[in-house]
Amino acid sequence: MDNLRLLIDAPLLGVQLLLDGILIGAIFALSAYGMALVWGVMGLINVAQGELVMLGGYAAFFLYRAGIHPLFAVPLAGAALFLFGWVLYRSVIFRVVDKDLFISILATFGLSILLQQLANTLFGADVRTAESGLGTLFLFGGAVTVSQIKLVAFAAALLTGAFLVLFLRRTRMGQAIRATAQNARAARVMGVDTGAVYAWTFALNAAICGASGALVAMTWVVHPYLGLPYTVRSFMIVIVAGMGNVAAVLGAALGLGAAENFAGFIFGAEYQAAFVFLLLVAILVWRRFWLARERKVLR
Amino acid sequence: MRKRIAVGSALLAGAALLALLASGADAKVEGDTVVLGAAVSLTGKYSVNGKNTKDGYDLAVKRINEMGGVKVGGKAYQLKVLYYDDESTPARGAQLAERLIGQDGVKFLLGAYSSGLTKAIAPVTEKYKVPQVEGNGAARELFTQGYKYLFAVLSTSDYYLRDAVNLAAEVAKEHGRDPKTLKIAMAFENDPFSLDVRDGILEDARRYGMHVAVDDKLPPEINDMAATLTKVRALKPDMLLVSGHEKGATLLVRQTAEMKIDVPIVAATHCDSAKIAETMGKLAEGILCASQWDRKLTYKDKWFGSAEDYAQLFEKEFKYPAPYQAAESTASVLVFADAFARAGSFEPDKVRDAIASTDLMTFYGPIKFDATGKNVAKPMVLYQVRDGDYKVVAPTRWAEVKLVWPRKLPQ
User: Fold this and answer.
1) CATH 3.40.50.2300 occupies which residues in chain B?
2) Are residues A173 and A153 in contact, defined by beta-carbon separation less than 8 angstroms?
3) Interface touch B190/A147, C-beta < 8 Å
4) Which residues pair with B83 in a beta bridge?
5) B250 CB-near residues (< 8 Å, 6+ apart)
6) How far, in Å, CA of A287 to CA of A122, rounded?
7) ipTM of predicted complex
8) CA nearest to A10 within chain B
9) DSSP 8-state symbol, B181
10) How far apart (Å, rounded) are the C-alpha atoms in residues A78 and A35?
């Protein structure tokens, strides 16, 4: 409880935690967009989501080592992962799209293990980072610091969200994706090539994860086993926000990031993750009752 | 009838052959060669460190044999090591130890790589009363089980950051401050190794009467220390101690620089293997790193000369710079060589007693075991990152340069 007193005595700490949490949440929002997209359109829970983030991180790291500024590495890693996602769809994912949910979970779980071990073999288990070379902003006379790379990540999350909304609303492919999500069979009857739609959706997801991975490499570190938290957190965010709403995904991600950071400060880092999961349970229970009440009204 | 005799004699011959083999396997000394056994990780997740371990053993054996081997009872014996690959899995390591002792008749074991494997193998050597000397299992609990046949030449994990606490106390006294007034902030990954490190710090902090202001345990999957560091900024401690393997060290450097966390002493484990000075340059400036050994230390022995001589010989032989994992392994073999000579026998129990009374100076550092079998004579080394290089600053007796205190935050 000392920590709580500290927080009340020095409210600027709260500002720091809130800012950090929101900016961290933005990075989680990116992989959550992708998961919501794939889940909504293809009915597939991609357990290898975090591994796509990890690969994006390595792409950024290698580009950085080749002398390319890591900020340019963000779109490049996205592009590389787009191709990778496409190949992954055409080789593996298409086989499990219309199958039982458990089969797709099992398949992508297998993929995640495979990608982790491949990364371990190819890139080694060393912890790597890419330096963005951006500085730190000082607010309130240095009491609050914000690293600029986290601001970049936040901006990227907003931009990607806006791009996704526009892409889905305005483009032909976006329309096809939405049509397929509503009813795949009807879309097929209307002449939509659902195979191509799925491939696009999955590749788009991989690209978003890749970009987020590049940001992760610049904000924190990359190693072959960093994926799981991203998968789990995306899953949580999508559960809370639902699949159809990009703004809700962003909101849930930012809220979760902030909640997590405060929990880590007040209860100690060892309970940071535990708190987030407790929150998930609480939200699920609450939603269940809330939905039940709505259903009653409808009846 | 004749056929039956033929079968019978064949069986007899087979039995005789088996008996011969068995008696051959019983001898731990083949002619003028003493065989040591080791399970090392040549494949699996520890394969890199496993190779370091094996190279360390091989170099020691080669050097000892070049110098005439070990003299026991007036006769010179050569050393040889029988290796098996434990695939980095503890269960396999225990199986192989059984095999080395039971089938191959080896009576002296060298350690495997990592605390996990050592933990699996120690009960086996204990059961057969076979002395084991190891240099790569640092967990504290290996030495709280009452094992009589396990000896470690390295400092156990609780010693990793004790020197940072001692150094802080030393500096405080120099500046006319009572160590009692010092505040510690610390964060550890929630794994057995790091929690051992934490126990060590807590013990020393209590001894000085220091105050622990932040004590966070980072879950292994967390990739962010922002919440902990915010607390550190608010409480302004005199030292920040972190143990979280390579990931923890890298995050520490990156996030203290980013959030401008200004603490006079910042120390971590594993920052040399995380290569913080090489990859993060000036961001890492002034950070203290704990290490088991360094080639720049001025220790000397009769086999290799100085630590630097050893490092050069190693690099010539294996074409890569000597890591401390290899130095520890080499030192383990030296302990056996020294013990054989003093025991004057290859009787396992006599050798065990000779090992227990070891008082040896090596290129790796002084070796002297306490009653639990861990080396209490060798201090840990603290480096400070200076201009992209690691310079030894503690223990002050072996120091290369003087500590820069307080740490200047990189701009």
Assistant:
1) 26-155+296-367, 159-291+380-398
2) no
3) no
4) B38
5) A127, A129, A221, B274, B276, B280
6) 44
7) 0.77
8) B234
9) G
10) 15
Fill in the amino acid letter for B164.
A
H helices of chain A, in order, are: 2-9, 11-42, 49-65, 70-91, 101-123, 148-170, 172-182, 184-189, 194-219, 227-241, 246-267, 272-298
Class level of CATH domain B159-291+380-398? alpha beta
Half-sphere exposure in the Cβ direction for B56 (13 Å, CA): 31
In this prediction, residue B37 carries a pLDDT of 96
Structure-token match 């990116």, residue found: A30
Q: What angle do CA A23, A26, A27 make, to 5 degrees?
A: 105
Assigned CATH for B26-155+296-367: 3.40.50.2300
Could you state, in order of their start, the residue ranges of all structural domains in chain A?
A: 2-270
Could you tell me the sign of the dihedral formed by the alpha carbons of B266, B272, B275, B277, in that order? positive
| Inter-residue contact B239 to B185 (CB < 8 Å) | yes
What is the overall mean pLDDT for chain A? 89
B300-336 pLDDT per residue, tens: 999 999 999 999 999 999 998 888 899 999 999 999 9
Contact A81, A59 (CB under 8 A): yes
- CA nearest to A145 within chain B: B259
Judged by a CB distance cut-off of 8 A, whether residue B252 touches chain A is: no
Contact A17 B227 (CB under 8 A): yes
**Shortest CB distance from B222 goes to which of A13, A262, A273?**
A273
* Sequence-ordered list of residues with C-beta below 8 angstroms from that of A75, at least 6 positions apart, any chain: A211
Confidence of residue A123 (pLDDT cuts 50, 70, 90): confident
CA B68 to chain centre: 27
Q: Would an 8 Å CB–CB cutoff place B312 in contact with chain A?
A: no
Say if pTM beats, i.e. exceeds, 0.90: no
- For residue B341, how many other CB atoms are within 10 A of its CB? 13
B45 touches chain A (CB under 8 A): yes
CB A130 within 8 A of CB A70: yes
Q: At what angle do helices A11-42 and A194-219 cross, to 10 degrees?
A: 160
pLDDT in tens, B188-210: 988 878 889 999 999 999 999 99
CB-based contact B123:B132 (threshold 8 Å): no
Rounded CA-CA distance B70/A160 in Å is 70
* CATH of range A2-270; options 3.40.50, 3.30.110, 3.40.630, 1.10.3470: 1.10.3470
The secondary structure of A39-91 as a DSSP string is HHHH----TTHHHHHHHHHHHHHHHHHTT--HHHHHHHHHHHHHHHHHHHHHH
Interface residue ranges in chain A relative to chain B, Cβ cutoff 8 Å? 3, 6, 10, 13, 16-17, 20, 24, 120, 125-129, 131, 136, 138, 142, 145, 147, 216, 220-221, 223, 226, 228-229, 261-262, 264-265, 268-270, 272-273
